Amino acid sequence: MTLKESSDYFSKLAELGINIDKKSVLLEKFIDIFLEYNQKINLISRNDFRFLFEKHIYDSLSLNLFLKKYYKDTPLNMLDIGTGGGFPSIPVSIFFNNINITAVDSTLKKIKFIEFVKNELKLNNINPLCKRAEELSFGADFDICLSRAMAELRIILEYAIPYLKEGAFFVAYKSLKAEEEIKNAKNALKILNAEITEQIEYSLPIETENKRVLIIIRKNAQTPGIYPRKNGLILKKPL
Ligand code: SAH
Question: In the chain, what percentage of residues exceed pLDDT 70?
Answer without folding.
Answer: 96
